[in-house]
C-alpha cells in the first residue's frame, strides 16, 4: 500500500510539472492579447523571432516551435508579421497573424493629490529618471524558458480589469496596462512563477514596485506595494512571498496592480492563468 501511494504521489508531481511546463497562454488576437504563431520545423536550431524588431518568446512543442507575441494595446486591426531566423546565417521566414479590433470600456477616477495627475517640474525630473529604470526592467531578457502558466499573486477582488481607457480627473491617460486586485494593506503578494527580480523601487506614479523576469522577456510587474520583500538579483520560486499590498503612488485605495509583459508589451494577465 505504501509503495502504491509513493508512486501515485510521484506521478502527480510529475504530471503537475509537465502541465506547467507545456501549457501555453490562451490566444487572443486583439490589442492587448497574445498571438500563438506556429513555426515550421526547419533544422534543429532554435529560431530567433522578432516582432517590430523586438525579440519574441519562443518555445518548443513536440515537432515545431511556437512564438508567443504580445500585441500592443494601440495595435491596428489587420495583418501583422513576425520574422524568424534559424541560426546566425540560416534561413529566414516571415509569418503573419491577424489582429481583430476590440473596444475597451472607459474608467474615470478622481485623484485627490493633483500632482499625481499634473506633476510639477521637480516631479517631472524624477519621473524621467524613473522611466529609464522602468524601461530597462521591461526590456530585460533571460535565455531561460519561462513557465507559461502563472498563479494569481494575491487573493482579493478584481477592482479594475486590463485595457480600460482611463481618465484621471477627466484627463485622458494611457490605457490600463494591468489587472488591479483590491485587498487590505498588508495582504501578502506571492511570486506567480519562478524568476529573477530585475528591479525594485519607489516610483512617483506606481509607488513601491517589483519587476520579475521569468525568462525570454516574460516580465511581471507589481505596483503600489506597502512593503517589498525581495531585492534585485534575487531568484524567486512560485509561491515565494515578494511583498505586501499597499496604497503607494497614484491610487484611490489599497490594491495590487499586476502587469504581465511579452516582447516589452503589457498584455492581458488572465490569458496566463490556469484554465479550468
Describe this structure in words.
This protein is mostly beta strands and 276 residues long. Helices cover 14% and strands 39% of the residues. Strand 14 and strand 15 form a beta hairpin. The chain is globular. It starts with a helix and ends in a 9-residue tail after the last strand. The N terminus is likely disordered.
What is this entry, summarized?
14% of the residues lie in helices and 39% in strands. It is mainly beta. It has 2 domains: 23-99, Peptidoglycan hydrolase domains (Immunoglobulin-like, Sandwich); 106-272, Glucose Permease (Domain IIA), CATH 2.70.70.
Instruction: Tell me the number of structural domains.
Output: 2
> Rg to the nearest angstrom?
20 Å
Oligomer: single chain
As residue ranges, the low-confidence spans are: 1-21
Report how far the terminal alpha carbons are from each other.
Answer: 31 Å
Structural class designation: mainly beta
Principal-axes geometry comes out as globular
Number of strands: 20
CATH superfamily of the largest domain: Glucose Permease (Domain IIA)
Helix content: 10-25%
Strand content: 35-45%
- Mean pLDDT, to the nearest integer, reads 87
What is the number of helices?
Answer: 2
Report the CATH topology name of the largest domain. Glucose Permease (Domain IIA)
Biggest beta-sheet profile: 10 strands, antiparallel
Amino acid at each position: 500500500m505504501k509503495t502504491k501511494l509513493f508512486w501515485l504521489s510521484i506521478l502527480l508531481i510529475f504530471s503537475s510539472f509537465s502541465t506547467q511546463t507545456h501549457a501555453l497562454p490562451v490566444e487572443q488576437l486583439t490589442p492587448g492579447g497574445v498571438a500563438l504563431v506556429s513555426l515550421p520545423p526547419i533544422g534543429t536550431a532554435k529560431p530567433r523571432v522578432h516582432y517590430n524588431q523586438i525579440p519574441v518568446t519562443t518555445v518548443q512543442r513536440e515537432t515545431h516551435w511556437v512564438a508567443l507575441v504580445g500585441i500592443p494595446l494601440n495595435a491596428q486591426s489587420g495583418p501583422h508579421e513576425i520574422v524568424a531566423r534559424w541560426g546566425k546565417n540560416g534561413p529566414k521566414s516571415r509569418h503573419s497573424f491577424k489582429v481583430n479590433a476590440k473596444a475597451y470600456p472607459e474608467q474615470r477616477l478622481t485623484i485627490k493629490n493633483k500632482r499625481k495627475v499634473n506633476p510639477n517640474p521637480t516631479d517631472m525630473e524624477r519621473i524621467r529618471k524613473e522611466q529609464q529604470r522602468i524601461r530597462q526592467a521591461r526590456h530585460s531578457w533571460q535565455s531561460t524558458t519561462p513557465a507559461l502558466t502563472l498563479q494569481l499573486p494575491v487573493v482579493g477582488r478584481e477592482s479594475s480589469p486590463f485595457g480600460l481607457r482611463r481618465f484621471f480627473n477627466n484627463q485622458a491617460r494611457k490605457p490600463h496596462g494591468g489587472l488591479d486586485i483590491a485587498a487590505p494593506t498588508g495582504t501578502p503578494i506571492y511570486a506567480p512563477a519562478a524568476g529573477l527580480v530585475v528591479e525594485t523601487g519607489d516610483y512617483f506614479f506606481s509607488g513601491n514596485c517589483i519587476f520579475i523576469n521569468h525568462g525570454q522577456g516574460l516580465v511581471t510587474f507589481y505596483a503600489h506595494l506597502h512593503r517589498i520583500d525581495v531585492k534585485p538579483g534575487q531568484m524567486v520560486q512560485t509561491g515565494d512571498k515578494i511583498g505586501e499590498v499597499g496604497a503607494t503612488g497614484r491610487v484611490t485605495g489599497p490594491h495590487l496592480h499586476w502587469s504581465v509583459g511579452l516582447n516589452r508589451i503589457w498584455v492581458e494577465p488572465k490569458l496566463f492563468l490556469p484554465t479550468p
